[in-house]
Design a protein that fits this description.
heterodimer, A: disordered N terminus, B: Arc Repressor Mutant, subunit A, 71% helix, binds zinc ion
């Protein structure tokens, strides 16, 4: 049972996921993680501030070019969007996660957001706008169409089109992390549902997990 | 664990937090918000890169690197400032 601080008190190793910059570089700490070899995992990394990694549901928050499966050790703290531990080491690189998949991820998030926007417009009897969004055939077209509507902020769905426009543009640019965030914001604003943002993030995490065949939950390493 | 949308950190706020971020002086929650912003914001990522590069250059500057005239001017300005003029 986690404590009030989120400290599980677990000393046994735990598997999680870690995004890194090219060359196994920690995006914010700047240190290089040791690569695993045929003989076993990489060397333990134990920075002063600890290591941070993802459960599956955390993945959309921390997107970077490389994705690795890691083993965490020491007391593990469960934080709202990540897991903290005293030390960690790389187990294997998730080779399925690459630039093409990152781009596809952004597009998938944007297309899902577009469908949500169409429904929101139809609910408001604004068939014209809904159809205009539905007819778009590319991200750039979606961007231009949504941007054209963004000035008319009469309803929740109109308020959301600014986010849809940003989402489509970033998806077109291959910026999957930004496209996904804007998509979740867009759906949240369009539906006015306070749970919509978290639900979109869950869907995005599931998309990554499914595309990269990541197992459902990090489990204790036996 | 599913989380609600964390409070948005504007680019301007991030810039103001950057020195503390690099010094490791932010609390965990604020540091996380800065890092999450940097994941998706190319403008702030570039700003951070330049900021780090500037700090790197400044740290490498030794007194001997300053031309004599620049050193004199700086010392002169400092003396005036000390005397409150
Ligand atoms: Zn920014």
């Amino acid at each position: 049972m986690p404590s009030a601080t989120g400290d599980t008190g677990a000393e046994q190793p735990m598997r999680a996921w870690k995004f890194l910059d090219p060359g196994r570089i920690a995006p914010f700490g700047g240190h290089v993680w040791s690569a695993p070899s045929t003989s076993g995992p990489g060397a333990w990394v134990e920075p002063a501030g600890g290591v941070f990694a993802c459960r599956l549901e955390d993945l959309p928050w921390w997107i970077r070019p490389e994705l690795w499966e890691v083993e965490l050790a020491g007391p593990v703290r469960m934080l709202p969007t990540q897991v903290a531990a005293a030390r960690g080491r790389l187990l294997r690189r998730v080779l399925a996660w690459d630039e093409a998949v990152l781009r596809a991820y952004g597009m998938a998030c944007a297309e899902r957001a577009r469908d949500r926007a169409v429904h929101a417009f139809l609910r408001e009897d604004r068939q014209g706008e809904g159809d205009a969004l539905r007819r778009t055939r590319s991200m750039l077209e979606l961007y231009r169409t949504a941007q054209g509507m963004a000035t008319d902020a009469r309803t929740p769905s109109s308020n959301a089109v600014g986010y849809f426009a940003a989402c489509a543009l970033r998806a077109a640019q291959g910026e999957g992390a930004a496209a996904a965030l804007h998509a979740a914001d867009a759906v949240s604003v369009a539906t006015g549902d306070p749970d919509a943002f978290a639900r979109e993030r869950q869907w995005q995490a599931a998309w990554i997990a499914g595309r990269c065949a990541l197992s459902a939950e990090p489990v204790a390493v036996v | 664990m599913s989380v609600a949308r964390p409070q948005e950190l504007a680019c301007k706020q991030l810039v103001e937090l950057l020195t503390d971020f690099l010094d490791g002086a932010l609390d965990e929650s604020t540091r996380t918000r800065v890092e999450q912003h940097l994941v998706w914001c190319p403008g702030c990522t570039e700003y951070l890169r330049q900021f780090r590069a500037t700090i790197g250059v400044t740290r490498k500057l030794a007194e001997e690197d300053l031309p004599e005239r620049v050193k004199e001017n700086l010392l002169d300005a400092f003396r005036h400032w000390r005397h409150g003029s």
